[in-house]
Automatic annotation (TrEMBL):
Name of the protein this chain belongs to: Ribokinase
UniProt: substrate binding residues: 9-11, 37-41, 137, 237
Role, per record: Catalyzes the phosphorylation of ribose at O-5 in a reaction requiring ATP and magnesium. The resulting D-ribose-5-phosphate can then be used either for sythesis of nucleotides, histidine, and tryptophan, or as a component of the pentose phosphate pathway.
UniProt keyword list: ATP-binding, Carbohydrate metabolism, Cytoplasm, Kinase, Magnesium, Metal-binding, Nucleotide-binding, Potassium, Transferase
Activity regulation description: Activated by a monovalent cation that binds near, but not in, the active site. The most likely occupant of the site in vivo is potassium. Ion binding induces a conformational change that may alter substrate affinity.
Cofactor comment: Requires a divalent cation, most likely magnesium in vivo, as an electrophilic catalyst to aid phosphoryl group transfer. It is the chelate of the metal and the nucleotide that is the actual substrate.
Compartment list: Cytoplasm
Complexes and interactors: Homodimer.
Lineage: Bacteria, Bacillati, Bacillota, Bacilli, Bacillales
Chain residues that bind K(+): 231, 233, 267, 270, 272
Gene Ontology CC annotations of this record: cytosol
Gene Ontology MF terms: ATP binding; metal ion binding; ribokinase activity
Residues bound to ATP: 181, 204-209, 236-237, 261
């Protein structure tokens, strides 16, 4: 079983052909809401690929929160670890889209209230999982707490260090795999880390694929699939959810990476983060063709 400890957001998008200047109001075009948050996105990716997923996180006691709980349940995610908090708002990402010039403001809301104290009450969920998947849209002290708890309980941990925040070496030592993209890998200064940490680092390189270190300590590149790209939002989230779903099933590192590379390639052929996430059948068909 997979446990995802992370953020749950509603993405609120407005497209416009003109960015408002300071003090200016413009009439936009389309308005839409999409379920989002790296935690929820990665949970959806893993659930669609057949994993038994339990989420730990929080939403506010508002319409977005209610909607997101129902939505994630419908995706087959077990939500008993998600709290509905009174007096705080559900996390939102306010996205202004103008051609390629996206501007985003995230208001974390309930995600900021996912504290070690909250996790302590739900320890058993983590301890009964095969693997825990984390991102960095909840407080860093919570991430530290979960990594230490999983480590002491012999549960594998995958840390997707996005968005980037500084991480201590001792914490990196306790994760099973860390999955930065190119920019995050540079921020972590992966090339300056010790061999043990380098060996557990899987770097996603967008359309260039995925770089990892194999069992013999050799750097390997898994090239990305050549696909018609529509929207790369959620590619990293699909990769992480898919990777963890495969590791949970006992797949080898190389197989899990190749599979996740295929799932992420499929996700960029469709618009939206969660909308584009493939099912198990879709990935199998893609890999057999
Ligand atoms: P993030 O979205 O977190 O920045 P990346 O851009 O590195 O992450 O993408 C994650 C993974 O998604 C890549 O390693 C690759 O497997 C897949 N991917 C991303 N962009 C493309 C693309 N243009 N074509 C095929 N696969 C892609």
């Amino acid at each position: 079983a997979v446990c995802v400890v992370g953020s749950i957001n509603m993405d609120i998008t407005v497209s416009t052909s003109k960015m408002p200047k300071q003090g200016e109001t413009v009439l936009g075009e389309k308005y839409r809401t999409y379920p989002g948050g790296k935690g929820a996105n990665q949970a959806v990716a893993a659930a669609r690929l057949g994993s038994d997923v339990t989420m730990i996180g929080a939403v506010g006691d508002d319409v977005f929160g209610k909607h997101l709980l129902t939505h994630l349940q419908q995706e087959g995610i077990q939500m008993q670890g998600v709290e509905v908090l009174g007096g705080v708002s559900t996390g939102i990402a306010n996205i202004i889209m103008m051609n390629q010039d996206n501007r985003i403001i995230v208001a974390p809301g309930a995600n900021q209230h996912v504290t070690p104290e909250m996790i302590e009450k739900k320890k058993h969920i983590i301890q009964n999982s095969d693997i825990v998947l984390l991102q960095q849209e909840i407080p860093m002290r919570t991430i530290q707490y979960v990594i230490e708890l999983a480590y002491e309980s012999g549960v594998k941990v995958v840390l997707n260090p996005a968005p980037f925040q500084p991480l201590s070496k001792s914490l990196l030592e306790k994760v099973t795999y860390i999955t930065p993209n190119e920019i995050e890998a540079e921020a972590i200064n992966i090339t300056q880390q010790n061999v043990r940490i380098q060996r557990k680092t899987i770097i996603t390189l967008g359309k260039s694929g995925v770089q990892f270190v194999n069992n013999n300590g050799e750097k390997k590149l898994v090239p990305a699939f050549l696909v018609p790209v529509k929207d790369t939002t959620g590619a990293g989230d699909t990769f992480n959810g898919a990777f963890v779903s495969q590791i949970a099933k006992g797949a080898s590192l190389h197989h899990a990476i190749s599979y996740a590379n295929a799932a992420a390639a499929l996700s960029v052929t469709k618009i939206g983060a969660q909308t584009g996430m493939p099912s198990e059948v879709e990935v199998e068909e893609f890999l057999n063709n």
